[in-house]
Amino acid sequence: MENTEEIYTDFARVYDELMDNTPYEMWCNRLDQLIASYGVSRPTRDAEGILDSERNLVVDLGCGTGTLTELLYQKGYDCIGVDNSEEMLGIAMEKKAESGSEILYLHQDMRELDLYSTVGTVISVCDSVNYILEEEELLQVFHLVNNYLYPGGIFIFDFNTAYKYREVIGNTTIAENREEGSFIWENTYYEEEHMNEYGLTIFAKCGDGRYEKYEETHYERAYSLDEIKESLAQAGLVFVTAYDSFTHNPPTGESERICIIAREHGKKTV
Fold it and tell me: Given this model, what pLDDT does residue 52 score?
């Protein structure tokens, strides 16, 4: 089992800068649409009963620095953010203090998810699922999600495809210089193992003008849509539909990211 807490130790300090071109607002709007269309949660924090409160809860698995979690909170959802990196959560807590939100952040590995109640919606975006490197561990995550979902609740998540790792990223080196720092991204995709490895070297500018160097190696597993569907079924979740990323289009053989919607199964509505 890879320790995702360790690999994000230094990365957390510059994560938001490196991800500043990520369309979080677009993703948030699309998630809001998907929840309204398929889910049971509603963007309100004024539920009268305990069951209504649970139904409206949205859990962000692999929430990172809380950017998307904050946007969902601003939409009106009652949110819980879960991440295995203390450093990432530390930055998320800074954003919470600045915004005045009431998001609950939990320091947990999604493979050992432990919530205090059921929740109406679980999301996991930005290829967090690809960091689960073993199929049995992915199955465990899906089991836990189904266990904590409110009756009829939904799980929305995305994953990078083998096509993206093989054809788009491939064996490449990417370098970028910025005023606040620079980074070098060296990517290698191992076809037989369905494993993507990228080495990240970061030169981050300090307050005194010096630059600090950080080096990390990340691994992501390429899953096929069929493998995802099979694991969902084994975990008791019901596959609902799939989209090409966060568009309204079905996935194709050239989809780089696939968004999945699955529904809780096995509980009865009270």
Answer: 78
**pLDDT tens-place string over residues 143-191:** 999 999 999 999 999 999 999 999 999 999 999 887 777 889 999 999 9
Query: Which phi and psi (to 5°) does residue 58 adopt?
Result: -120, 125
Q: Are residues 74 and 205 in the same domain?
A: no
Three-state DSSP at 136 gives: helix
| The CA-based dihedral angle spanning residues 223, 224, 230, 235, taken in that order and rounded to the nearest 10 degrees | 30
CA dihedral 71, 241, 143, 44 (to 10 degrees): 30
Domain membership of residue 250 as a residue range: 4-160+222-263
pTM > 0.85:
yes
pLDDT in tens, 1-23: 444 444 445 566 677 677 778 89
Inside any domain, residue 268: no
Reference 18, options 81, 69, 79, 64; nearest CA is: 64
**Structural domain count of the chain:** 2
